[in-house]
Amino acid sequence: NSEKGHNLIHQLSEEVSRSICTGQVVISLSGACRELIDNALDAGATNIDVRVKENGTIALEVNDNGTGIDELNFPVLCKPHATSKLSSVKDFDQLSTFGFRGEALNALAALSDVTIVTKHTDAKLGSKLRFDNKGEIISKETVPRQVGTTIIVENLFKTLPVRRQEFVRNSRKEFLKMLNVIQTFALSRCDLRFICSNTVNGKRIQMIATPGGTSSIVNVCASLFGVRAEKGNILEIEEAIPDDEVRAIYGLQDRDDKVFEEIKIYGYISSCEVGHGRHSADRQFVYVNHRPVDYSKVCKIANSVYQQFNRGQYCMLILFIEVDPAALDVNVSPDKRTVFLHEEKRLFAKFHASLLKTFSQVLGSCKELPN
Ligand code: ADP
Ligand code: MG
What we know:
Belongs to the DNA mismatch repair MutL/HexB family. This protein is an alpha+beta fold. It contains 9 helices and 15 strands. It folds into 2 domains: 202 residues, Heat Shock Protein 90, CATH 3.30.565; 135 residues, 2-Layer Sandwich (Ribosomal Protein S5, domain 2), CATH 3.30.230.10. The strands form 3 sheets. Strands 5-4-3-6-2-1-7-8 form an 8-stranded mixed beta sheet, with helices on one face. The chain has a 5-stranded mixed beta sheet with strand order 9-10-13-11-12, sandwiched between helices. Helix 8 packs parallel to helix 9. Bound molecules: adenosine-5'-diphosphate (ADP) and magnesium ion.
């Protein structure tokens, strides 16, 4: 296309643009796992069992007891932008599912060997489907299975040799990140049972098993981290003083757009005596409207307040932020972990005030350190 020295703009072939894009949808083992758990949750699963082999380098398998997949959808399952969850742009405002772009299965198929075993609520038998890297079904058989879906991802990144090599080299670290992703889900959905195991040299090691059912955040914390709430190791975050007072103290302007009126926050933080971990990111979990997010500004606030009470350690933080869905933009990054929030400053002020209130309630037992 450089005829007569011209450098003509041309559209990339579908194949080239596809491999560029899919490589960005799923960039890591933990990202793959997150997408698969999102799908299981969207399907209404109450049991989610993640099994990996050799830290995920051989296989990642996510088993759920959700609705299963309707046979009519088999041919398009791993095709680009195939989704059952979004049909028009205006649906964005009312989005209640984790998935909406129809890209995850397509990307995984392009990057690995995908097998799906599923039985839909209406189906008599289960089906086992294998897909090629274009997302076409290459084999299909009927198999016995209870209602639900298993998605098996083998040889992740085999079509991107450099990334594959990097993944295999850092597989232990990647596996730990994946555990963190599952912990993140487990803390936000105490009603669900999450299980995770890793098979290394033929030996299966159970890493996570949350109780599910009617268990509370406190119970899930105990099962994940061995943190004992009954010993006063974690504190429930006290919702701060009313918004108008927060505004006054932090010098924030009053706004008249009523849409963004309510910001609710609740959750748990380590007590001042018992911090959890030397690294801040270890055990800090933030959710906006129940969506796990990377919100370093919020963690920074927690760390700076916590430092006033405990200089040696970081705090565990499990924080739920609830805002009007219209005040939130989730479609910022491919992994959906970045959010834009209107009136972010008000949230920060409220959170800061809430933490001070939480710790001031127990100040009898822990003194604020002098600066
Ligand atoms: P999205 O989640 O954005 O719709 P995905 O590529 O993740 O896109 O999934 C494509 C479609 O496959 C989903 O819309 C859903 O209909 C179906 N699907 C994927 N995983 C599951 C599952 N575990 N249970 C039921 N249906 C699933
Ligand atoms: Mg999805």
